[in-house]
Each structure stands twice: as structure tokens, then as C-alpha cells.
Amino acid sequence: MTDSILSKAATMEIPINSNGDSRTAEDDGFEQGAQIGGSLDEIVGTLPVTMDLQQVMVSGPNLNETSIVSGGYGGAAEGIIPTSSIKDIRSKSRGITPSHSATSRIANQPGHYPAPSMHHSNSNPSMMSEEATKGVAVEKFDSMKKWSINTYKCTKQMFSERFGRGSKTVDMELEAQIDVLRETKMKYERILRLARELTNHFYNMVQTQQALGDTFADLSQKSPELQDEFGYNAETQRLLCKNGETLLGAINFFVSSINTLVNKTMEDTLMTIKMYENARLEFDAYRADLEELSVGPRDAAAMVRIEIAQQQYQIHKDKYERLHSDVSIKLKFLEENKVKVMHKQLLLFHNAVSAYFAGNQQQLEQTLRQFNVKLKPPGSDKPSWLEEQ
Q1: What span, in angstroms and rounded, lies between the C-alpha atoms of 351 and 136?
Q2: What positions belong to coiled-coil segments (predicted)?
């Protein structure tokens, strides 16, 4: 009797409402399963108390393997709802989490659709951009921290040297060469300034001679009684103007060469010297820091700081020695280049000026050919029509 009752309950038909309700068949199946679960409790509750429960469970059908058919016998397979899913629904209503096997069987049923994912696709790019921004900020902070520490140490070392409380690394021979270079540069700058002034004055004199020669030539045409005298003077001024333009070409070449030597070659060496002096100051600052830590306590934290200071000291020592070598080499090459350039330029200046004031036009032109000085044609200093646009 018990077997027939349980079999009847397991195969009970549940009509499906199809009066246009918007709920899906799956929702109706879950609701009907919950109602069947309640009816099973009522049926089991009506059994006699004296009946052996173990015998009923053994002799009766397995509820995990039974199914409830909706829509009558012979209906579509989609209407079959396993009783295990009903037990899961009842467990959820009582606050019990369904087992993994039951959940997987429900997920495999036809008509079951997984819940949409709550992750947004645009979360990854935003997280990557935030991480990149944080990385740049951290890098800038580290750079600023290193710069601040280095500036503090160098400033401290500089004041210590000024007030005579700190030691300074000095190469007497190299320092003497640097002082000579700076003094030489000042003298060559004076030569360059005076040569430019001479060029400007001589250019004005040549322009005056040219204007004077044109005036004499005009008067020779309008004054028949003084035609020869005005003509001689006009010819002389034109010759002086021509020789003056030749001398201007030589002086301009002299000025250009001195300018290159002073403002490019010497300036490049002085820039290397400035880098060398900064490296020397940093080297002495980190050397003093290492010496100060070495005379302090030797605990674990102090040993770590000493090791870091030793590494920084070695880095700046290598930099100082490299720049020291660069300065020595550049000073040597600069001296050789200076002698070669000034020998040529001084000889050119002397021969050109002597030939001009001696009135030796051939010697003046020969001097320019000897030093490969090319004269610019009249009007070449003016920009072309294309450059003016």
C-alpha cells in the first residue's frame, strides 16, 4: 500500500496553465515542484506510526531518480523535472544550499540559461590605466627623492669647503691648466672684441672712400677746369676702396676663426670642466658621508647604510675619474689646436695689413690666395628674394 501511494505521488500529473501567462515553463515547473514537495510531506505524515521507516525507504522508489511529468503522459521531454531539483528548491526555501550534483543537473536541463556575468568589460583597461598612472607617479617621486638627497649632500659639502671644515680632492696640475685656460679665454675674447671693432671702423672707412670716389668722379664731369685733378683722386679712392674690401675679407676670416676657437672649442672644453667640477663635488660629498658612517656604530642597520654608501661612493668615484680623464685629454687637444689655428691666423693678419698699407695690391691678393680666403662679391650679404619671403 505504501509503495502504491509513493508511486502515485511520484507520477502525479501537474497541469500547466497556458492562459497567456508571461511566466516561462521553467518557472511553472519550479513552483509545481515546490507544491509536490509539500504534498509528499503530507502523504508521508499519514503513514502508520508502527511502520518501519527503513523498510519504507528501501522498498519504495528512490526519490532522487524519479521525475515529475508536466503536461500529461507522452508529453515533450522538456517538461520532465527531476525530483532532485525539487529538493534543491525546498532546501533553498529553508536556507539550505543545494549540492554540486543537483546544481549541475539543473544546469544541464534544456531551457536552462546561465545568469549573466556581473563583470564589466571596461574594468580591465581602467585598471591598467590606473596602474600605469601610479607607476609614473612613483617613478617621479623616486627621482625627486634622489635629486633632493644628492642636492642636500652637495650643498653640505660645498659649505664645508667654504668654511674650511671639509676636505677637498684637488689635482694641482690639472687645476693649474684649467686656470690658464680661463685666463687665455678672457684674453682671446678681448682680441675678438677689438678685431670686430676694427672691422666695423674699417668697413665704414671703405664705404666713405667709395662715396668720396663717386663724388670726385661726378665733379670731374661737371668741372672741366679741374677734370684731371678730380679724376686722379677718384681713381685713387676707388683703388683704396678695392684694396680695403680685400683687407676686410682677410679681417673677417680672422674674426671668424677666433670666434670659433673661443666660443666653440674653448667653450666645449669649459663645459666638460664644469661637469668635472660637479662630479668632484659629488664624489667628495659621498666620500665624506661614507667616512662619517664608518666611524659610527656597527649594528645591523648601520651596516646596511654603510654598504649603500659604499656603492654610491664607488659610482661617483668612477664618474669623477672618467671626467678627470676627459678634461685632461681635451686640454691637451685644445692647446695643440690653439697653436695651429693662431699661427695661421696671425700670419694672415700681419701679411694682409702690411700689404694694404704698403699699397701692394698684388701682395695683398697673393696673401688671400695663400690662406684660401675667398672674397664675397658685392651685394652677397643681402638676403635673396626667396629668403625675404
Answers
A1: 64
A2: 306-337
Predicted pLDDT of residue 271: 95
226 contacts 219 by C-beta, under 8 angstroms? yes
Instruction: Give the DSSP H or E segment for 81.
Output: strand 80-82
- pLDDT at residue number 338: 94
In which band, very low, low, confident or very high, does the pLDDT at 197 lie, cut at 50, 70 and 90? very high
pLDDT band at 199 (very low <50, low <70, confident <90, very high): very high
CB of 166 closer than 8 Å to CB of 211: no
CA dihedral 311, 314, 319, 321 (to 10 degrees): 180
* DSSP letter string, 55-78: HHHHHSPPTTT-EEEBSSTT--GG
DSSP string, 167-179: -----HHHHHHHH
- 365, 247 contact by CB (below 8 A): no
- How many other C-beta atoms lie within 10 A of the C-beta of residue 141? 10
pLDDT > 90? residue 352 = yes
Counting Cα atoms < 13 Å in the Cβ hemisphere of 41 gives 8
The reported pLDDT for the residue numbered 343 is 94
Euclidean distance between CA atoms 133 and 261, whole angstroms: 48
Cα–Cα dist 101/82, whole Å = 12
User: What are the two backbone dihedrals, phi and then psi, of residue 70, each rounded to the nearest 5 degrees?
Assistant: -105, 140
Question: pLDDT class for 123, splitting at 50, 70, 90?
Answer: low
User: pTM for the whole thing?
Assistant: 0.58
pLDDT of residue 175: 93
Nearest CA among 276, 98, 66, 299 for reference residue 174 = 276
Question: Using CA atoms, how far apart are residues 234 and 216, in angstroms rounded to an integer?
Answer: 5
Q: How far is it, in rounded angstroms, from Cα 238 to Cα 253? A: 23
- Of residues 158 and 353, the one with the higher pLDDT is 353
Here the cell at position 369 is: 690666395
Q: Which residues are CB-contacts of 88 (< 8 A; sequence separation ≥ 6)?
A: 98, 99, 102, 103, 106
Contact 336, 268 (CB under 8 A): no
What's CA 15's distance to the chain center, in Å? 74
For residues 287 and 168, give the distance between their C-alpha atoms in angstroms, rounded to a whole number. 10
Strands (E), 112-155: none
